[in-house]
């Protein structure tokens, strides 16, 4: 007993007396620290341990508190480097390749996530020629926590925008950083914390919801582990779905060249099967076609583009699985190994699984095969057969699990909180798609997030650059109500918060893709916004913003800010996408004219107009109002009363 107690005492002494100085994951080799600002450096050690930080031949000292937390502030330093840093307590940590420059915290959902790698066809030259060792990104992995703010990250490194290492960079953040670097020739650091399909509530701290009683109640409920565990009990263990797809259970699977097809019908690619005679089917549909391949395309690597497929797909060529994607949003770009293609007839089979909505191949996307200098078009008539039909969900059965990443505070706690001590230049925010169903709520939630983050970083009113939602979904050629338009209005209203900027992207969308390919223009426009808000440039950083409207008989006169050198249309035609209404609020298309620095709108159908809208649709057909600097006007609605 005495020996056991003695051993325990020694172990406790060793654990307490020789605790190692530790650093947060963000503070490591190759980091970029904020120039011209007092910079936080922090970490953990044993209780009351003395800690010294040596940088640029100067030493700064501090002492850990009783809980082992330590923090010190480095004096402002000019942009430059590289520097080394030594952190010494009872042990020593040496960091290298440290630069001082500007650090931006970039966050949001999938359009901020999307890496250059996903857009490597559009930006092939950018990737091939990337050589910017002073542009670096710290990519924060997807993490959630419902219990409270976390102090550190489990993983992550600072990576330079050089060669293949640029592929994981957020495309928007990369082009933003590149534009800043090219103008100011200083290191640019990007901390990227973004997760696809997530609402703004997940990115806000508990304190940020002080004015949102309903959300606060959800946060408290989610802290109850018994409540959270009940979802696991309710949904039960995850079991593999029984294989009922006839195409996979037949003696010869339907992708096997030995299979002899019977009962297959014709269908077109691209297109949704619900639009081609298959009514309301969720399930598995197989597509099949024999493609003639010339000899010049064989014996070499090939690429196959299958646009986008809703939802999941498996591609087989001559009986071999050569590509698959498990969800609908990525563009299908499959590399084919040498030898998979043969001269003459080749069997192409695509197994498509759809669980909701229209299934099939998204129109207006590339569907073709490339090898060497030759191209084969894959669009046209194929054959199809239904392999499985999923029974409609009728509810009951105890429900499913809880999506942690969509819960209030979940992403703030795990992905934002560990970075709030890191000194930064400002924020870039690209999010809103997941909140588009409740735009009025977003008008309150976005200013709350801005205030919350500025409070947490405690660096004053840091610049907050916000990307407005681009056009998306079907075109509508009549004036309509639109949640996406209302969401853009909510994003526009956030300009009332000091030191913010709005990047209008209404002209950059794609009707059939929530992730438009043009990320460079978004990044470039973010940089223009930064030039003005963060760097004090006397420059035009925004397109026209509607300021007020007045009536003159049966006409409405709209005045704008940010007109720059003047108003113009992008196509040289009269301004389009204006609609007006009288007291009945029934909107009709209006004629519009530019008169120097204002727009005059009217319609013979409305004798006393009271309301005006511009580009008010999910995806307006021709939002052509710009300033002469080439920046688009924000969609808006105004009333004269």
Describe the SSE topology:
Layout (H helix, E strand, L loop, with lengths): L1 H16 L14 E3 L4 E6 L5 E6 L2 E6 L5 E6 L5 E9 L3 E17 L1 H4 L10 H5 L2 E9 L18 E5 L8 H14 L3 E7 L18 H10 L2 H11 L10 H4 L15 E5 L1 E2 L10 E11 L8 E5 L2 E2 L1 E6 L2 E6 L7 E4 L7 E11 L5 E2 L5 E5 L2 E4 L2 E10 L20 H7 L9 E5 L8 H19 L6 E4 L15 H11 L6 E4 L16 H14 L11 E8 L2 E7 L5 E3 L8 E4 L6 E2 L1 E5 L2 E5 L8 E4 L10 E3 L8 E4 L2
Parallel strand pairs: 1-7, 7-10, 7-24, 8-10, 24-25, 25-26
Antiparallel strand pairs: 2-5, 3-4, 3-6, 6-7, 8-9, 11-23, 12-20, 13-19, 13-23, 14-18, 14-21, 15-20, 16-17, 16-19, 21-22, 27-28, 28-33, 29-35, 30-31, 30-34, 32-33, 34-36
Structure commentary:
The chain has 641 residues and is α+β, with helices and mostly antiparallel strands. Among the domains are: 246-389, Galactose-binding domain-like (Jelly Rolls, Sandwich), CATH 2.60.120.260; 545-639, Sandwich (Immunoglobulin-like), CATH 2.60.40. Helix content is 18%, strand content 32%. It is built from 11 helices and 36 strands. Strands 1, 3, 4, 6, 7, 8, 9, 10, 24, 25 and 26 form an 11-stranded mixed sheet that branches. Strands 11-23-13-19-16-17 form a 6-stranded antiparallel sheet. It has a 4-stranded antiparallel sheet with strand order 18-14-21-22, with no helix packed on it. A hairpin with a 2-residue loop joins strand 3 and strand 4. Residues 4-17 have low confidence and may be disordered.
């Amino acid at each position: 007993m005495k020996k056991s107690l003695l051993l325990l005492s020694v172990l406790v002494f060793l654990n307490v007396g020789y605790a190692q100085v530790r650093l947060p994951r963000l503070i490591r080799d190759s980091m970029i620290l904020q120039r011209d600002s007092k910079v936080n450096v922090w970490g953990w050690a044993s209780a009351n341990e003395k800690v010294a930080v040596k940088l640029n031949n100067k030493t700064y000292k501090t002492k850990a508190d009783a809980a082992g937390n330590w923090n010190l502030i480095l004096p402002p330093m000019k942009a430059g480097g590289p520097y080394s840093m030594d952190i010494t307590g009872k042990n020593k940590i040496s960091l290298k390749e440290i630069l001082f420059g500007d650090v931006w915290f970039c966050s949001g959902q999938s359009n901020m996530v999307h890496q250059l790698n996903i857009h490597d066809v559009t930006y092939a030259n950018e990737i091939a020629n990337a050589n910017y060792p002073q542009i670096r990104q710290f990519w924060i992995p997807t993490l959630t926590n419902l219990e409270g703010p976390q102090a550190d990250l489990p993983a992550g490194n600072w990576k330079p925008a050089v060669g293949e290492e640029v592929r994981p960079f957020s495309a928007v953040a990369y082009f933003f950083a590149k534009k800043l670097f090219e103008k100011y020739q200083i290191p640019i650091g990007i901390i990227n914390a973004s997760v696809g399909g997530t609402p703004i509530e997940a990115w806000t701290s508990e304190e940020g919801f002080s004015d949102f009683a309903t959300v606060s109640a959800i946060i408290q409920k989610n802290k109850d582990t018994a409540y959270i565990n009940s979802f696991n009990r309710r949904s039960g263990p995850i079991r593999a779905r029984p294989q009922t797809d006839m195409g996979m259970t037949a003696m010869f699977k339907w992708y096997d060249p030995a299979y002899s097809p019977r009962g297959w019908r014709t269908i077109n690619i691209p297109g949704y099967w619900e639009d081609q005679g298959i009514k309301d089917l969720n399930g598995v549909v197989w597509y099949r076609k024999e493609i003639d391949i010339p000899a010049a395309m064989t014996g070499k690597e090939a690429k196959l583009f299958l646009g986008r497929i809703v939802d999941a797909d498996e591609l087989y060529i001559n009986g071999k699985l050569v590509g698959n994607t498990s969800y609908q949003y990525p563009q299908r770009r499959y590399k084919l190994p040498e030898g998979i293609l043969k001269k003459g007839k080749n069997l192409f089979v695509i197994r498509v699984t759809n669980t909701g909505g229209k299934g099939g191949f998204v129109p207006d996307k590339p569907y073709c095969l490339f090898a060497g200098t030759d191209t084969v078009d894959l669009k046209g008539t194929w054959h199809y057969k239904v392999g499985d039909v999923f029974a409609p969900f009728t509810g009951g059965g105890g429900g499913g699990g809880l999506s942690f990443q969509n819960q209030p505070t979940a992403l703030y706690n795990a992905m934002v909180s560990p970075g709030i001590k890191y000194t930064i230049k400002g924020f870039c925010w690209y999010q809103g798609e997941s909140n588009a169903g409740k735009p009025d709520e977003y008008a309150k939630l976005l200013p709350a997030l801005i205030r919350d983050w500025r409070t947490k970083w405690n660096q004053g009113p840091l610049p907050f650059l916000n990307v407005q939602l681009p056009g998306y979904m079907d075109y509508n050629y009549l004036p309509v109500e639109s949640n996406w338009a209302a969401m853009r209005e909510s994003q526009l209203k956030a300009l009332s918060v000091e030191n913010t900027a709005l990047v209008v992207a209404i002209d950059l969308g794609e009707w059939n893709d929530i992730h438009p390919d043009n990320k460079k223009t978004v990044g470039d426009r973010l940089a223009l916004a930064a030039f003005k808000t963060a760097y004090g440039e006397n420059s035009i950083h925004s397109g026209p913003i509607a300021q007020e409207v007045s009536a003159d008989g049966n006409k409405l006169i709209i005045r704008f800010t940010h007109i720059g050198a003047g108003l113009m249309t992008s196509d040289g035609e009269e301004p389009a996408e204006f609609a007006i209404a009288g007291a009945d609020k029934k909107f009709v298309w209006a004629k519009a004219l530019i008169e120097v620095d204002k727009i005059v709108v009217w319609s013979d159908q409305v004798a006393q107009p009271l309301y005006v809208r511009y580009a008010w649709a999910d995806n307006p057909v021709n939002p052509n109002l710009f300033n002469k600097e080439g920046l688009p006007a924000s969609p808006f609605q105004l009333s004269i009363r």
